[in-house]
Write a structure and sequence with these properties.
With 346 residues, this protein is an alpha/beta fold. It is built from ten helices and six strands, in the order αβαβαβαβαααββααα.
Length: 346
């Protein structure tokens, strides 16, 4: 009898639990969300597989919870509305708001003066940062120069900027721009003909304000209080190792890991390893450890100088062709002028 009574009391207590829980909830505030204990332990990471996606760093308790990534494209990026599509999808999937400077917010003439664009970027970030817990800059190519100048012109961590990751950025100026300006100067009276010939050959004007600025720019000190990381593919033939010089900033030269990355300058826009390192920097607000082995680092150190040399030879050859073409156009144009004497066939 005692055993049957004990079982009956137990069943009655289980049946009453939901009602007791409702009474308790009615007397309490809403439940506190569980605290994230951090990412699960995983084996050491390499560039051959994605880095661990750690939770985002919490925003200030009384401030906005969302964080914003501002993308800044390079020279002529305004012509390609899909330049950042792959990374934008990745970042949005990780819970960040993402905007592209000059397309979604602000005014950006990628062919115009870099300082003008830098002021626009500075003011745009200052306006946007008021609605976010943190702002992260991700730039490609000349976009890095625009961001550098924005910091030189007053943008800082006090404006909410927390991280700044530059892809294939020529922080110390562009050797191709310097070469173009040099060969145009050598053309003398044929300068405009050389400019027109080059524009027709490569579909780019070598004498717009942005190119002139890139020929003159030099690396500046990194902004205090902002986590900085430079990323570049070893096969980048447009931004050389010397161009990418950025004293005081952590830098990684990566080997291409897919066919689309072989053309290093544009390929970095599709590079999953670049995306992994960028998002890891943004989430942790710190430069992630370099998990590459010695072999991969050594290979990058070997490949980059070879690509630099090949690109330099190709650039010199292109400049010579444009120079000769411009002189030829100039001479031909002069010879077609009406002669000051009557034609012998008249």
């Amino acid at each position: 009898m005692r055993m049957r009574a004990l079982i009956g009391a137990t069943l009655l207590a289980w049946a009453a639990l939901p009602a007791l829980a409702l009474v308790a909830l009615a007397d309490e505030d809403p439940p506190i969300p569980p605290v994230d204990a951090g990412p699960p332990l995983r084996p050491p990471l390499t560039v051959l597989r994605p880095v661990e996606r750690a939770p985002s760093v919490a925003a200030p308790p009384n401030g906005p919870q969302k964080e914003l990534i501002v993308l800044v494209g390079g020279f002529a990026s305004e012509e390609d509305p899909h330049v950042f599509d792959a990374f934008r999808d990745r970042a949005k999937g990780d819970g960040y708001d993402v905007v592209e400077f000059g397309r979604d917010v602000g005014t950006y003439d990628t062919f115009g003066a870099i300082d003008t664009s830098a002021v626009q970027l500075r003011d745009t970030v200052r306006t946007l940062s008021k609605g976010y817990g943190a702002v992260h800059l991700v730039t490609h190519s000349m976009g890095g120069n625009v961001a550098d100048r924005a910091f030189d012109l007053g943008l800082s961590s006090s404006d909410g900027v927390t991280t700044y990751v530059a892809w294939a950025a020529p922080h110390d100026g562009v050797h191709a721009a310097r070469a173009a300006q040099s060969w145009l100067a050598r053309s003398g009276a044929a300068r405009e003909d050389t400019r027109a010939f080059t524009n027709a050959l490569v579909r780019r004007d070598p004498d717009v304000a942005a190119v002139r600025d890139m020929a003159q720019l030099r690396a500046s000190a990194p902004p205090p209080g902002v986590v900085r990381l430079d990323l570049r593919l070893a096969t980048d033939g447009l931004v050389s190792t010397a161009d990418a010089r950025d004293p005081g900033v952590a830098s990684r030269v990566l080997l291409p890991m897919s066919r689309v990355e072989v053309e290093g300058h544009g390929g970095i826009l599709k590079s999953e390893q670049t995306f992994d390192l960028t998002m890891a920097t943004i989430r942790s607000r710190a430069v992630p450890r370099d998990e590459r082995g010695l072999a991969l680092r050594a290979a990058s150190d070997v490949v980059a100088p070879i690509v630099d040399l090949g690109a330099q030879i190709g650039l010199t050859a292109l400049c010579v062709v444009c120079f000769i073409g411009g002189i030829g156009v100039f001479v031909g144009r002069k010879l077609r002028r009406p002669r000051p004497w009557p034609s012998l066939s008249a």
